[in-house]
Amino acid sequence: MITKKEYIEGEVYVRPPDDIKKEGKIWKLLKPLYGLDDASRKFYLKVKETLQELGLSTLPGDDAFYFENRNGVLLGMNLSHVDDFNIAGDEEFVERIVNGISEKFTVSKVEKDVYRFTGLDVKAGNGKIEVSMEDYANSVEEIKEIRKADRDEKLTRAELKEYRKYTGKISWLSQGARPDLSYSALMLAKKNNSATISDLRKVNKIVEKVKKEENKVVYGRVGDKESLQIIGVVDASYKSDEKSIGGMLIMLVDEKMTVASPIMWKSKQIERVCHSSKDAETLAMSKLLDEVVYIARQIEILLFGDYRKRLPVRIMTDSEPTLESIASTRQIERKGLRMTVQEMKEKLMEGEIVSYQWLSTKEMWADGLTKEMEMAEGLRNLLKEGKCGIANQEINKVICQNKEIKMLNIRNRKKKEEINQE
Predict the structure, then answer these.
(1) How many folded domains does the chain comprise?
(2) C-alpha–C-alpha distance, residues 290 and 294, integer Å
(3) Domain extent for 77
């Protein structure tokens, strides 16, 4: 749904153009113009007032997301982006919101089930929602001519402009439909101010990768709200000569771990200094912890109307040393990470996190968010078919039981016991 901007402003007076002005007369604006300091804010406030009058509330932490939950039942949602509105819900809700907005704003277009929103092609039907970026991906073509020069030679101003254009395109694709491009996009962005001929040549390799996979995500029903859980998968790649990289993937999953829907994914440079792989994995998990608790709170408010920690939240990692640090009563050696690990323990004891547990490297889908590699088959099945595919082994599972943090099903305990007996 697209509206025409109708900014409402406080009293603003302007001097008329010289060819039509009248002595002693100035103009009072009935509607503000682009460029006025608070025009956008006034428009936002009018949108907020309109939607609240229609019975919607803002989602805590996101003032552009509105929803209506009545007696624990989610009726619908509205996501606003400037003057575009993405509305979802039952027929009565959608009709009421569309009519309510149309009464206050001039609506230029209303599209249903098939439309484009912020550059994403959305198609709803048969109980699924398909978000595609195929058209956008098709517009990303290889750079035809690259100057012959030493691979370490700095790019010219024109070449750097071209390089940044591709950085933006790859980043947008990675955020919308291609998690396997997240690491590539991050590496491109790191060189935005210092790219070389070698970096420009790497762009074409990434473009080849764009063409290898479908650029779409299919979202389907996961299950009843009472049977849902949120799983965060985290990984990190330790780099001794530069800053390490962390990757995370958050999913909405059914209790049987068979059906899932991706919520978000991200590759992020770890700003703090890492002295080991354990440092990198621990700091990456800390970032995921912040994201997954925030998202769990928002989803529960949407589905239930309030937050009471109903949705189990689990974090999975392939770092056994990090899990051991959380489960142990001993302080970790590196003092700079003690408060980070302490926060992980507190989230467990407070019930915001149900468990931390080990995940085999084979099933570590976040691995592709920390290094350059092809999309994992499990990740592809998640994006295209809504399959979870992660074995629910619950190995090295760290939980809080009777206010005591402990690790269950320790993977190497049996092997260690056999060695000790010998």
Answers:
(1) 3
(2) 6
(3) 2-112
